[in-house]
């Protein structure tokens, strides 16, 4: 493994290179996952697009057309949870990755890895959820593949969705484009997806059933772009939560972010569950929310556009970009104190998506 | 499961609907896999592109550009085998699916599912093989994703590659386009990939080491198109082998195919291994071959173009399309007898790719 550290001039943010085997945290939204990309996949693939700041989808110029392209594999456990299942999660997740580049989804693929012995009714339910989710988001599943592995070599099913989308002329959104003075918006309550999965998995009830927020955000982004054409950056805060998204954008844009923690919408049951489990809601995954970096002059219009949409009703302005402390996200707590907000190292919660 | 059989007017070619659980054969290139698509995925997804004849990649008109799009998950066991590994297999396989629509590959994605505890050196070797294969085929891996599952919930790693390609104006290739009078060409020796995997897995040596034929066919298809612009159909005979490809095209085009079995290039060690194991080489998977349906007038030019290319040196004309026995493939044996060539039901050999 010595030679995977040869990427010219690049240095790991944390010296974890001694890791000789894959750990669960490599699949999280934290530093371990980034290290795997930067130390292993980048040198192996040698692709400029991958070497750029991490983004939800890549934008390519193909035959004069601007295409967004993205892929995600889904291994969520359990397959069904309050608010959704692996099927709609996989469709919505890939649509959202396209939407975060400002792209209108055009078509999706579905690649299944099935475990021998899987109940056909389970697969049918998952496939129907995928078809319904695609229809709901006005897109289509146009190509697919099925592999089967022996009993014990998967658990139930895994699914990969890849997607292509069209990016309109003039739309330039990227994690490296946030600028001092930008306002930071989130489109609604955070933490619901992670807590929903956790509550099913742990068997712990938190008084009320918390449902995953899984939703397709293509339409929301279209409305947002109409109201605030100068959006600088968009991110869907999935693995690693809002904290990871903010830290990635702060690093990619070399700006500081001040987060007004009191303004972040955290539903009471999510706060209670996180308190009980010792988690920070900022680190918990979402599957139907976005964070937007918008020039101050368009922030109110952007907020109104988000709030007018069914998937953005709970939107709020939660922070500001500064030229102080580049690369660092600082939270102002309700009591007026400040703290540095970090990305998690690995994952608090494996198999969240 | 009752309602998955409601696809309007469609009837399964074989009444296997009583299957209530996934079996290994659903992942093969045979009838069980087709049934899964037709009885379950089609009604669930409701997509016209999927309902069309099965094809290696779908062609979409996007913003005035003709794009091919495809996906494949790879679960080959073992990860490394003579002639390649899961990494180059995944890159070449997706490039080939694009090439079978006449597309020039533009970009690929890579979605990994890793097992906790996987040796980082193994992942590194696979990723480097992917990077090298992409470079060899003049394409790029531009986006990716990594998930990790707990020990015992995968074996080593699975990888999905999806791809997009550009289809030139005037190129119209599809499994439903074969016409009576077309000549059938294969680009070289068949059966090598399947026998290579089988020999590693069974520990059986067949005198000489048979290597997988894994190779990217984009360049070969470009040469073929230049020599024979009227190619009607192309297929890479992977799971299910040459027999499955021929049967699918015969069915989709509603034509008969007469295969001159003596003309099919089967290397001696492949024939010996198949004889020993009771397999028909026509059913064994290939990963670097194509079968082409070309109008008679262009067949010799097509053959010459194939033979001039490093990946087509062993090309041969192996059959003819007829308007007799539509949907049926008939083999003429070296002794002058004829037999019906069928698709396998499931898979002789699971986890071949």
Automatic annotation (TrEMBL), chains A, B:
It comes from the Bacteria. Residues 179-328 form the PurM-like C-terminal domain. Residues 56-167 form the PurM-like N-terminal domain. InterPro entries: HypE, PurM-like_C_dom, PurM-like_C_sf, PurM-like_N, PurM-like_N_sf. Pfam families: AIRS, AIRS_C. One of its GO terms (biological process) is protein maturation. Coiled coil: none annotated. PANTHER family: CARBAMOYL DEHYDRATASE HYPE, HYDROGENASE ISOENZYMES FORMATION PROTEIN HYPE. Belongs to the HypE family. This is Hydrogenase expression/formation protein HypE. It comes from Dactylosporangium matsuzakiense. The gene is hypE.
